[in-house]
Amino acid sequence: MKDLLGIIILLARIVPFSGLTSCPDAWTAFMGSCYLFGHDLMTFHEAAVLCKSYEANLIHIETSNENTFIEDQLKHLYRASSATAWWIGLTDENVEGLWKWHDTDTLATFTDWFPGEPSNGGNNEDCASIYVREGFHWNDVNCQLFKYYPICEIQDQNYNVEVVG
Ligand SMILES: [Ca+2]
Ligand SMILES: [Ca+2]
Ligand SMILES: [Ca+2]
Q1: Does a structural domain hold residue 108?
Q2: How many domains does the chain divide into?
Q3: Rounded to two decimals, what is the model's pTM?
Q4: 16 preceded by cis ω (within 30°)?
Q5: Tens digit of pLDDT for each residue in 35-70?
């Protein structure tokens, strides 16, 4: 009985780090964010609107940690979907060559462009994607011409909540 109580107390201490998040069902929690990997193909702007409808934004990748996590998720998803690419919330639509995040309107500091990207091919590639054929690194593509899967991100409100055991 005493052992059982010990196990319950131990679990109560572990759970906040592994399971307790405020992420909605079907969203994936990681380091204070919740992510939704969309199942429908759409243009960049359709993807942005979809994320907004969840009170989220297209994903904003701040760190190589976050980037690696997302890349690993997509490699798993790719096996099931044979996807070409996923949209991330990064564009240079306003000023060519100035890549800004959609949610904060700030210049990108961390980036993971594939060598030779951003290429601005056809003088008309203003939206960033995570591109399967370029090793899941980033590629700028035409915002309207291609339909890819969206990745939405919101903050996980329960992250870092201290649970007193
Ligand atoms: Ca983020
Ligand atoms: Ca461009
Ligand atoms: Ca490109």
Answers
A1: yes
A2: 1
A3: 0.85
A4: no
A5: 999 999 999 999 999 999 999 999 999 999 999 999
